[in-house]
């Protein structure tokens, strides 16, 4: 166990430091964008006066842009989300570019329970110890970040701008809402803070994914995908058919049972949603190594409407290989791993507060029909983690659509991003900025500047930079 008594001592920080070199695809940044990997001690439970255990969260630190003569140095603070913090540092080039421009201190903070910031070490996710998951909440993570900022400011009044994308964007927005005395403003890119029960229709996500595929090449692409589900289910009904699927997709572990088939279908479904999210205009490796506009590449193999089972199976195998083996380095397909993100931690969060309903209708999308059934969902959460999800907890704490009192937040959303359906698309007042990117995928504006960026993305970054500069100036 990595816990230690905190007692009444002042928080200890920077317990260790390691030099890291940032590699951003398409950017010659390695000399400018290096960082130290540090650790910071936080309470296991910020909200108890009886529990005194502590553990360490990691953060990345770069002060190479800082003007030492400036006593109001800005802090650009990335609110880490569901994964190793170095992954997000490698995919948030806009923060680095603006930090260089504004002479800011750069901090990427790792979210508790992700990466190496594990409160109970190797037993953090031990299913026989569900009590270990009690401190895995948005509020505990935000309090970690608040303590870290307080330490970094060291009694100085320094402007802090929070940055985040996706769940990290949600955290950045909520961080500004809950700690306005610490955070001058926040850029919340592709932050679906409205993707909760009673606010956003559960079917909007898959409708947007389908639209992305329909418009990538031609509508035969989504039509073939829609037909493939029945093919997979028909083949999967027999042992010979399961082998046919396993061989066609070069599965590492052949399908043997109906549960195996279910896992395969869920995997394929998630591949399509991931492709829509990272449909960037250049090669990338955020979720997987991919070519530019990967959805278009997938749909190239599906541009002809397939009329036989054999041709459809072959076309689907070729299409999915764009995501699963673009580099052609994989000898087989492991369907237990879908992306570089930490899905195990997110599965747990979605069973406490982050209950974001998703459903689909096969008559309106290219996906199988699936309903949202909270009772079944809650039973599965309790079975897996002994957790009882609270579907309205986030709305209670952060207001849902009631954002009238909010200020100094940029909500940016790309209309090619499936999560934009749960994003803030209309501003509640003149201090909240809504920026729409018609040609943007998932938090594309947070990524590094690239010659292939569409005009709407370049325009969005210019607007964001001007707003952030104004926040710093007005601080």
UniProtKB/TrEMBL annotation:
Main localization, broad class: other
Entry's Gene Ontology cellular component terms: lysosome
UniProt KW Glycoprotein keyword: yes
Gene3D superfamilies: alpha/beta hydrolase (3.40.50.1820), Serine carboxypeptidase S28, SKS domain (1.20.120.980)
One MF term in the entry's GO annotations: dipeptidyl-peptidase activity
Catalysed conversion reaction: Cleavage of a -Pro-|-Xaa bond to release a C-terminal amino acid
Key words of the record: Carboxypeptidase, Disulfide bond, Glycoprotein, Hydrolase, Lysosome, Protease, Signal, Zymogen
Signal peptide: 1-29
Annotated compartments: Lysosome
InterPro entries to which the protein is assigned, alphabetical: AB_hydrolase_fold, Peptidase_S28, Ser_carbopepase_S28_SKS
Gene Ontology BP annotations: proteolysis
Assigned EC number: 3.4.16.2
PANTHER family the UniProt entry points to: LYSOSOMAL PRO-X CARBOXYPEPTIDASE (PTHR11010:SF38), PROTEASE S28 PRO-X CARBOXYPEPTIDASE-RELATED (PTHR11010)
Stated family: Belongs to the peptidase S28 family.
Binding partners and assembly: Homodimer.
Main function: Cleaves C-terminal amino acids linked to proline in peptides such as angiotensin II, III and des-Arg9-bradykinin. This cleavage occurs at acidic pH, but enzymatic activity is retained with some substrates at neutral pH.
Annotated protein name in UniProt: Lysosomal Pro-X carboxypeptidase
Originating organism: Drosophila erecta (Fruit fly)
Lineage start: Eukaryota, Metazoa, Ecdysozoa, Arthropoda, Hexapoda
